[in-house]
Amino acid sequence: MTTDPYSLRPVTDTEFAPWCRMIADTYGQDLTDADLAIKRAATDLDRTIGAFDGPTPVGGVSIYPRELTVPGAEISTAGIAFVAVAPTHRRRGILTAMMRRQLAELHEHGESVAALRPAEAGIYGRYGYGPASRGVMLRLDKRAMAFRADVDFGGGAIALADPVEARSTLTKLYDRRRHSTVGWSDRDEAAWDLRLFDPPERRGDATALRVAVHTEPGGEVTGYALYRRVGNPDGSRAVRLQELVAFSLPAYASLWRFFAGFDLTDWIEYEAAVDEPLPHLLVDPRPARADTMDRLWVRLVDVDKALASRRYSAPLETVLEVEDAVCPWNTGRFRLLADGDDVSCEPTAAPAELRLSAAELGAAYLGGTSLTSLAAAGLVEELSPGALGRADAAFRGHREPFYPGGWAFPLY
C-alpha cells in the first residue's frame, strides 16, 4: 500500500490536542486536559511528524532530545516517542514512511544516535533498532526477605518528603548519578514535570507518589526512592518502587530495609537492572523473583559517528562490514580504531573482519548485548578468526546498562 493519500508534516499547535488524543487512543488511554497540557509543554512540535488523512491525524512520531550516558561518554541522542498509527489506517505503509522520514531528517541534522522504549518489541528491528539494554521486573516476597547479618546499613536516617517539595534534591541526586551510569539520560524541567505528575485519576488502585530520602549523620543526602503503595487484583498488597538512587552501599541497603519493614505489605515490585545487587544482600535470594525484558532500543543513524562517540573497554582495531536497508549511507565497510580516549571510525576498502547489520551494532552500543550472543543467533558473522572475541571484549561495559524511567523513555 502507498502513503500518497496521506501528508506527513510537523503538527501545529492547534492540531496537537486531536493528534495527541489519537496517539493515546492507539495505546488504549484517555487524556484529560491536564494530561494534554503537560504533554504539550514537553513536546517540540518542530520535532514531530504527523500523518494526516485530510485534516484528520492518523499517525505520529516525535523526538525528545536527550543526553544519554554511553560507555565513557555522554552523547546527544534523539529520544523517540509517541509512535502510533490509528487503527483505522493500519497496514497502509504510514509507519514505515514516518520512520524512514525521521531517520533521514536525523541524518541530515547530524544526529547520529536514536533510542526508544517500544510498547511492542517486534516492530522496530525492521527499522534498524536493536535491543541495547534489558531490565528485570522484580517481585519480592516481603515476608521472606531477610538481610545477611554482615550487611552494613550505616548510621544514616530515612525520612519521607513531598515529591514536589523535594524536587530540587531529587534532581541533583539524579543528575549526579546519570553522569556515571550507562543507559541513564538527562532530565530537563519538562521531563521532571512529567515524572512527578500525579493526578488522582491516573493512580488506579495505587496511592499518591511518595518519596523516601536517605541522609547521612553529617547531613549529606545520599539516596532517594520514589514509590507507591498498591492494592493488587488478587487481594495482595504491594509497594511499587518506581525509582531508586543511592551513592553508597549503606544508603542502598537502608532504603531496601525501609521497604522490607512495611506493615500490611505482601510484595515489593520494582523494574530493576539485570545485575541489581539486592539479591546478594539477602540470606536467601529466592524471594526476589525476576522476569527479564528488553528496555532501551538503540538505532545508529550514522554508524561511523556513533561508534566514534563512545569509548571501549579494551584497545580494538577491526573492520566492520555493515548492512543497512533503511539508511543506505551506513552500508559499507568501516575501520574502527579505539585505544582509550583515541577513537576513530571511518569508511575503508580493507577486508572486513565482522559482518553485521546496523541493528546489531545498535544492540551492542551500550555495552550490554553481547556480540558473541548475537553471533550465536546467526546475526553477526566472523570473517577473521578471533575478531569476534576481540570486538566483544571491547564493546562490553563493566555493568549492564540500565535506564530507570520505565516505559516512559524519553518523556522522563
TrEMBL record:
This is GCN5-related N-acetyltransferase. Homohexamer; trimer of dimers. Belongs to the acetyltransferase Eis family. PANTHER family: N-ACETYLTRANSFERASE EIS (PTHR37817). Residues 6-150 form the N-acetyltransferase domain. InterPro entries: Acetyltransf_17, Acetyltransferase_Eis, Acyl_CoA_acyltransferase, Eis_dom, GNAT_dom, NAcTrfase_Eis, SCP2_sterol-bd_dom_sf. The active site is at residues 124, 412. It comes from Stackebrandtia nassauensis (strain DSM 44728 / CIP 108903 / NRRL B-16338 / NBRC 102104 / LLR-40K-21). GO terms for molecular function: aminoglycoside N-acetyltransferase activity. Keywords: Acyltransferase, Transferase. PROSITE patterns: GNAT (PS51186). Acetyl-CoA binds at residues 83-85, 91-96. It holds the Pfam family Acetyltransf_9. NCBIfam families: PRK01346.1-4.
